[in-house]
Fold this sequence. Notes:
Blueprint: H1 2-14, H2 18-32, H3 39-59, H4 62-75, H5 82-102, H6 106-126, H7 132-150, H8 158-174, H9 177-193, H10 197-214, H11 219-232, H12 236-253, H13 256-272, H14 276-292, H15 296-315, H16 322-337, H17 341-358, H18 361-369, H19 380-396, H20 400-418, H21 424-429, H22 435-447, H23 452-465, E1 472-474, H24 481-502, H25 508-526, E2 532-534, H26 540-547, E3 551-558, E4 561-568, E5 571-579, H27 580-597, H28 604-625, H29 630-633, E6 638-641, E7 662-664, H30 668-674, E8 685-689, H31 696-704, E9 710-713, H32 720-727, E10 732-736, E11 739-740, E12 750-753, E13 756-759, H33 760-763, E14 772-775, E15 784-786, E16 790-792, H34 794-801, E17 805-809, H35 815-830, H36 835-844, E18 852-856
Parallel strand pairs: 3-6, 6-7, 7-18, 8-9, 8-10, 10-14, 14-17
Antiparallel strand pairs: 1-2, 3-4, 4-5, 11-12, 12-13, 15-16, 17-18
Helix pairs in contact: 1-2, 1-3, 2-3, 3-4, 3-5, 4-5, 5-6, 5-7, 6-7, 7-8, 7-9, 8-9, 9-10, 10-11, 11-12, 11-13, 12-13, 13-14, 13-15, 14-15, 15-16, 15-17, 16-17, 17-18, 17-19, 18-19, 19-20, 20-22, 22-23, 24-25, 27-28, 31-35, 35-36
Amino acid sequence: MARALHKKAVEAATADRYLVAIGLIRKGLALVDPPGGVDERLEVRTRLLNTLAFCLAETGSLEDGLAQMAAAREALADLTDPALRDELYSLVDGNRGVLLCRVGRIDEGIAQLDTDIAFNERRLAEATGDPSAIAELLVTGLSNRGMAHAYRTDQGPGPAIADLDRAVELAGRYGFQIREAIATHALGNVLQRAGDIPTALRRYTEAQRAFQDLEPGLLMRLRIDQSEALISVGLADEAGTLLDDVLPELRRQRIGQDVAEAELFRAAAALLDSDLVLAKRMANAAQRKLARRGSPAWAAVAGLIALRVDALKALDSHRPPAGVVDRALALAAELTELKLYDQAAFAQVLAARLEVRRGNTEHAERLLRDIPKSRRIAPIDHRMLLRLCRAELALAHGNQRVALAQAKAGLAELGRMRDRLGGLELVSGTALHGRELGELAVRLVLAGGDSATNARRLFTWLERTKAQLYRYEPFESTVDPVLAERITEVRQLSRALLRARLDGLPTAKLVARLATSQRDAMRLGWSASPWGKPRPVTTHDEVLARLGDRALVTFASSDNEMVAVVLAGGRVRMVRLGAADPITEAARRLHADLNALAPDYQPPALAQVIAASARREAERLDQALLQPLAAMIDDRELVVVPTGALYVVPWGVLPTCVNRPTVVAPSATAWLSSSREDAEPGSGVLLVRGPGLQAAQGEIDRLAGYHVDAKLLGVSDARVTAVLEALDGVALAHIAAHGEHEPENALFSKLELVDGALFAHEVGRMRRPPHRVVLAACELALNRVRPGDEPLGFAGALLAGGTRTVIAASSKVGDQPSAAAMADFHRNLAAGATPAVALADAVAVDPLRRPFVCLGSG
Length: 858
C-alpha cells in the first residue's frame, strides 16, 4: 500500500502537484513508521521521505528539503542489502543535486548528479533483467544535469545538449512518454539560453502537445519558460498574458520556486512594456521569495530587474543620484561572484550609462573597458544596452560619427536575430529591443539641420528602423496540422460566440475559451521555420529611380516633433511639421468620426453634424501634414509611409489627396518590393460573397460583368478552405464580407465566411499569394502598430505574405457605400486604370463614406 501511494505521489510531483503529493506521502509514511529494521520497510520509507523532501523544498524552503533528505540518508546505514543501500544513496544524492541546482548552487548540484548518473549508467550496462526502472532513473538524472549545465556560463551549450539528447533517446527507446516530453522541454530551455529561439520554441511546442495529452499540470512550468523566450524577442505583452494565466494556479499550489520565477519574468515583461510600477512590484516580490528559499542567484537576478526600474527613473532626472550607480556596481560584483557573468555585465553597463548621464565620462569609460567581450549567445537586450551606452558615451565626447556607428551595428545585430525567426508576431516583436538605438539615431540626424544631405541621412535611418517585417521575401512553408486544427477550433468558437450574442445568451465562458484558443494557436505559430529571406534596406537613389514622376513622403516622430522626408523630382528634402501630439489626436478623432458616420441608416441631422466634424479634422490634418509639402509634391501621385496613429488615416479624405492616386506602404523598402515586376503575376479574377451583406448580391453580380474571366463564390460556396484554395495564385481577388480588426491579437483579424472566420493568420502563409486583393469590409486596413513602426493586421499579413496590392478600409464602412465604391473601383480598373488611380476616382465620389486606402503597390 505504501509503495502504491509513493507511485501516485511521484506522478503528482512530476506534474508539479506538490500539495497532492505531500498528502499521499504522509499517508504512506503512516503505514511504514517505525521502520523496524526490515529492509523492505526501510526502503519504502526512504523513497517516501526522498520525494517528500523535494516537495517540501518546492513549497517551502530549500533547507526544509535538505534536512529531510539528510534524515533519510542517515537511516540508510541500517540496510543490510549493500546493492539496495547503494541504489538508495544514489537516489537521495541525485535528488539533492536537483534541489541545489534549482536554487542556483550549480556546481554543487552537478557534482551530486554526476555521481548519481555514473551509478545508474553502470547499473544499466550490467542489468540482466528488465532494465526499465534503471533507465527511467538515468533519464531523470540526465535531464536534471542537462538543465543544470545550461545555467553554467563558463561553457557552451554542448554538455547540456548532449545530456538532454541522450535523455530524449533513452526515454523514447523505453517508452517513457512523459519523461521524453520533460527532456524535450528542458532541451528547449537550453536552446533558448544559447540564443536559438526558433528551435527552442519548436521544442516547447513538441513538449506542449505531449503535456496536453499526458499531464496538463506540466504546462504551467512550460508557460514560464515560453514567456522567457518571448521576452527575449520583444513580445512583452504575450509573455505577460502567459504569466498572468499561470500565476494564480501556481500560488494556489504553493510551488515556491516556480511562483518566484514567474513573478521575476512578469517583472521583466512589464519592464519591456514600460509598466515600471508593476515591474518593480513583481521584481521585489520575487526577490523576497527567492531570498527566503535560499536561492541567492535567482534573488540577485530579480534584484537586477528592480535596479533596471530605478535606473530608468534616474535617467529621466536632471542628474541621476550616485546611490543608484553604487547599487549597480555592488550588484555587478555580487552577480560575478555567483558566476552570472552576462547579468553582471548588464549591471555594470547600467552603471556606466548612469555615469555618462552624470558627466563622469572617465569612470564610464573605465567601466566599459572592464566589461568582457559580449558572447555570441548573450541576450539581445544586453547587447543593445551596451551599444546604446557606447553611443551615448561617444556623444558625451562630441563624436556623433561613432555614436551612429554603434547604432548601425546594434540594429544590424538585431536584424540578424530577426532573420532566424518564424511567425509574423515574432519577427515584428524584435523591433522593441532596438527602439532606443533607433530613436537616438533619428534624434542625432534631426539635430544636424535640414540640409539635403541630412534629409538623405534621415531617410536611411528611418528605413533601418521602420517596418522591417515587410522587407522579407517569405519562404514557402507547409501548414502545421496541429496549428491548422487549432485555428479551426478558433473559428468554431468565434462562430459560436457570434450566435450566442445574436441569441442573447451568456457569453463569458465562450469569450474566455476563444481567447485561450487564439493564444494557443498564436503560440504554435511562433515555432514556425524562419519567415523569409531578408531583402536589403532600400536607398534613396533606388526609390527615386522607381518613383518616376510620383512622390514618396515618409513621416516620423521624434521627441514630440513630426517630420516628413519627401522624395520627388530627383531630390530628397526634409520638412519639420510641428508638434506630433495634436496631429496624432486629430488622426484619432477623424477615425472616430468616420466610424460614427458609417451606418447605412441614421438621422440626416446627426449625419450632418458628424460629417462636419470629420471634415474639420481632415482639414486640420491636411494643414499639418500635406500643405507644408505642397510645393514639393505638386500634383504628383503619392506614396505615403505613415507613422504611429497616422496608419488609421484614409488619405483620400484629406483635401490635398481628394482624387489624387495615393498609396500607403509600411516603409519605402516594402513599397519598392511590392512594386517590382512579378515573374508569375497570377491569373484570373476571384469574386467572393460572404453572408449577411444586403448589398453584396447585386454588388458581386455587377462586378462579374467587368471581368471576362471572373470566378464567383456565392455565400453557400464561400467556405474557408474553398476561399483559401481559390486565392492561391489568382491575379485579382475581391472579397465582400463582414470583417473585424482585432487590435489585441492582430493576426486574428478576420473575414466572416459562411462556415466561420477566415483569419489573417491563415492568409499570410499561402504558397502563391494573390497578386491584388480587395477587402470590401470594415477596418481591415488597420494594424496593431508595434515599436519600430511595425504595423500588423489582416491587410498587413497579406502584404507580408507577398501580395502586392491590398484595397481595404481603414475605418468602419456601411454596406451600401462599400458596394457603390467597389463598383466604381472595378469599372475604373476594367477600363485600364491602375489600382491607385481607380481607387482615387471611386473614393472621391463620397470620401467620408468611402474610407478605402490602397496599400502596397499602386
